[in-house]
């Protein structure tokens, strides 16, 4: 809940500063690739493709606030257990192969620094917020349908992105985001282990409209 309050506060602050902006306000639409590490033994990292939109408000020319909202399409999670597994405090898993589908969404906001050169604008950012995936919940349901007793509630854990990228100005009103590269930390508790840190990577690229 405290992460939701922090994100709401950042959004309100972001909007309130628009009246005093000294440089410009930007909105963007992006394609995004997310390499997600589910931290479940025997389950490989996932590749999510998706995209979203957001906005940046700059003032003092080099400093701004950014918010972005990304959604990623479904990917398949498959895990095989050759023998039954007992997870202390979290139920049992019958032997078998379990498959589920999962989407993912992220919503973050935070400070952004850029070098305001006329053509190429490098930038760095630290974003905080939350995310959601139904992958762990769907995997738990698949196990329970086979007689297991794993219960995983819906989660909206703390999520953070740290990275940067490069924008190319096409005109006074349009720019191209050539690439944004971020380390993304998510803190999902999965149904099979006690691990709750996932170290992920994302790439974003798209079109920026400047006002």
Walkthrough of the structure:
With 211 residues, this protein is mainly beta. 12% of the residues lie in helices and 58% in strands. It is elongated. It starts with a helix and ends with a strand.
**What would the principal axes of the Cα set say about the shape?**
elongated
The figure for the number of domains is: 1
The overall average pLDDT, rounded, is: 85
Oligomeric category? single chain
What are the low-pLDDT stretches, counting only 5+ consecutive residues below 50?
Answer: 12-22
* Topology, number of strands: 10
Q: How do the strands of the widest beta sheet line up side by side?
A: 1-2-3-6-7-8-9-10
Compose a concise summary of this entry:
The protein has 211 residues and is mainly beta. It is 12% helix and 58% strand. The chain is built from two helices and ten strands, in the order H-E-E-E-E-E-E-E-H-E-E-E.
Core attributes:
211 residues, Porin, two-stranded antiparallel sheet
Secondary-structure blueprint of this entry?
Elements: H1 2-16, E1 25-36, E2 46-59, E3 63-81, E4 85-87, E5 91-93, E6 96-114, E7 120-133, H2 135-145, E8 158-169, E9 174-186, E10 198-210
Antiparallel strand pairs: 1-2, 1-10, 2-3, 3-6, 4-5, 6-7, 7-8, 8-9, 9-10
């Amino acid at each position: 809940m405290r992460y939701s309050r922090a994100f709401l506060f950042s959004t309100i602050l972001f909007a309130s500063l628009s009246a005093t902006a000294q440089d410009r306000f930007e909105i963007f639409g992006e394609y995004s690739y997310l390499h997600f590490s589910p931290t479940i033994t025997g389950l490989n990292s996932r590749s999510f493709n998706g995209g979203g939109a957001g906005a940046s408000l700059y003032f003092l020319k080099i400093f701004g606030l950014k918010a972005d909202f990304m959604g990623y399409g479904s990917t398949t999670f498959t895990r095989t257990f050759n023998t039954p597994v007992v997870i202390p405090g979290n139920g049992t898993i019958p032997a078998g192969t379990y498959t589920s589908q999962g989407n993912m969404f992220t919503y973050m906001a935070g400070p952004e620094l850029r070098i305001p050169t006329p053509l190429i604008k490098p930038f760095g950012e630290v974003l905080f917020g939350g995310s959601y995936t139904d992958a762990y919940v769907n995997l738990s349901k698949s196990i329970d349908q086979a007689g297991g007793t794993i219960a995983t509630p819906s989660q909206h854990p703390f999520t953070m992105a740290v990275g940067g990228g490069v924008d190319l100005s096409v005109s006074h009103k349009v720019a191209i985001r050539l690439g944004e590269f971020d380390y993304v930390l998510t803190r999902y508790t999965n149904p099979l282990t006690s691990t709750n840190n996932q170290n992920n990577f994302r790439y974003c690229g798209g079109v920026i409209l400047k006002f």
